[in-house]
Amino acid sequence: MPEGHIVHRLARELSTTFAGQRVGVSSPQGRFSAESELLDGRTCLGAEAIGKHLFTRFESPPFPLVHIHLGLIGKLRIDRPGTGEVQSAQTLRLLLRTDTARAELRGPQWCRLVAEDERDRVLQQSGPDPLRSDADSEQAWSKVRRSQRSIGALLMDQGIFAGVGNIFRAEVLFRQAISPFVAGSLLRRPAFEALWADLVELMGQALLTGRIDTVSRQHSPEVMGRAAREDPHGGEVYVYRRAGQPCLVCENPISLREMHGRNLYWCAQCQVGPS
DNA sequence: CCTCTATGGCGAA
DNA sequence: TCGCCCTAGAGGC
């Protein structure tokens, strides 16, 4: 269940765990068996995240890369052998093993064995990723400023903002007091700059902690207390999945509407037109 | 047992 | 815009 920060954490963890090691590769489920055989016993060279795409590199020309996209429900768990509870092999798409570690992939949208050009294609087609040092926010701005689509839709477009998902979209728009329905072309440059800077901040923090916490520490103890209350997704947020509950800032009920098949949450009081 | 949902994205209409 | 793919956990009966 990943937004970009999870994928970046996985890339880092795969690298520290498997890089430089010979890795046993298999597909207990069978759906990645032929590919696994080509990789089994080869040396892992590390992993990289591009937005929500994960590439794990092996010393295995001409197809050195395992391209994983977790989609909505995929999970990749990395732990010590024997520590996790036993789960069904029926759903275990990919298993990486050394003597001291294992990685289990279940339910991915994609798991493919690819060549370098596929990684280059993904990098090319992705918008700037706030978690990558090579991100050029100008590329996002040049698309946003020319678009009639809403900023809520633009933030979910991986070709414009790579790695941003439904939670970061909702939260960054609340924090920037921008209505999700404002057209990109109506955003002023300073507002875009602030939006981008906030994405870098929020996603960077989430990369460090593994959670999405977006509630500013500047609020009163009373508000902080309400924010800290048990949240379904495990972080402290302003609007995500808080439909009908009072806004932490203005007390108005949080709104919910479906947008492109996804739930969009916002505060109609706090979030206004272009600034 | 069943149904619903979820931090995504594709391809057919 | 809709249906579909992938899986697990929650909740209803």
Parts with pLDDT < 50 across at least 5 consecutive residues: none
| Subunit arrangement of the protein | single chain
- According to DSSP, the number of beta strands is 10
Q: How big a fraction of the residues is strand?
A: 15-25%
Characterise this structure.
This protein has about 280 residues and is of the alpha+beta class. The chain has eight helices and ten strands. It has helices at about 5-20, 35-40, 115-125, 135-145, 150-155, 165-175, 190-210, 220-230; strands at about 25, 45-50, 55-60, 65-70, 75-80, 90-95, 100-105, 110-115, 255-260, 260-265. The strands form three sheets. The protein has a four-stranded antiparallel β-sheet with strand order 1-6-7-5. The two termini are about 35 Å apart. The chain binds a DNA duplex (13 and 13 nucleotides) through helix 6.
List keywords for this structure.
alpha+beta, 4-stranded antiparallel beta sheet, 275 residues, single chain, DNA-binding, globular
What's the structural blueprint in terms of helices and strands?
Layout: H1 4-18, E1 24-26, H2 33-39, E2 44-50, E3 53-58, E4 65-69, E5 75-79, E6 92-97, E7 102-106, E8 110-114, H3 116-125, H4 137-144, H5 151-155, H6 166-175, H7 189-209, H8 221-228, E9 255-259, E10 262-266
Antiparallel strand pairs: 1-6, 2-3, 3-4, 4-8, 5-7, 6-7, 9-10
The chain binds a DNA duplex (13 and 13 nucleotides) through helix 6.
